[in-house]
Amino acid sequence: MSTQATIEQEATETEIIETKNEIRSIRQIVKDLSKPIAQKHLRKRRQGGKEIVYLAWHDAVKYLDHYAPGWNYEITRVDSIGGKLILTVRISIICLEGIVYREATGQEDEDLESYGDSSSNAESMALRRASAKFGLGLYLYDQNK
């Protein structure tokens, strides 16, 4: 085996070990979260006369569990403005650089007449948006324009 092949194999083995046993850099985590989402995890719905492709909140959680073990999620603020429920959430990821967080909001009409309830729908939206700030499904926002 050539020296270059040995180095590449050792690098791959090291990467696998680091991924499973050590805290990784935020750059590595974001790189992994930014990978295309498997088609089987994407869903579609009609919104505003357009078909929107999205990742369900529970699948976002699975991706975060896989690529950012030990991540944390919290609702940091709840507001009611003009008949809309607005939730602010924070996702925190433990990494080599410390704890890195991103916040996002989600909103829903308080008098909801469609699927779900206003709080769970707003929370789902906020979770997915905060996840996108770490790269998860971020490319979907460009596709849905």
For this entry, give a set of tags:
145 residues, alpha+beta, two-stranded antiparallel ribbon, 5 strands, globular
Mind sketching the topology for me?
Blueprint: H1 3-21, H2 26-33, E1 42-47, E2 50-55, H3 57-67, E3 72-81, E4 84-95, E5 98-109, H4 118-132, H5 138-143
Verbal overview:
By secondary structure, the chain is α+β, with helices and mostly antiparallel strands. It has five helices and five strands. The strands form two sheets. It has a three-stranded antiparallel β-sheet. Strands 1-2 form a two-stranded antiparallel sheet. A hairpin with a 2-residue loop joins β3 and β4. The radius of gyration is 18 Å and the shape is globular. The termini are far apart.
**Alpha-carbon distance between the two ends:** 50 Å
Strand content: 25-35%
Flag low-confidence runs: 1-8, 10-19
What structural category do the secondary elements indicate? Answer: alpha+beta
> Secondary-structure element order, as H and E?
HHEEHEEEHH
Number of helices: 5
Cα-atom Rg, whole angstroms?
Answer: 18 Å
Q: Got a strand count?
A: 5
> What percent of the residues sit in helical stretches (DSSP H or I)?
40-55%
Main sheet, how many strands, which sense, barrel?
Answer: 3 strands, antiparallel
Strand order of the largest sheet: 3-4-5
State mean pLDDT (0 to 100 scale).
86
Shape: globular
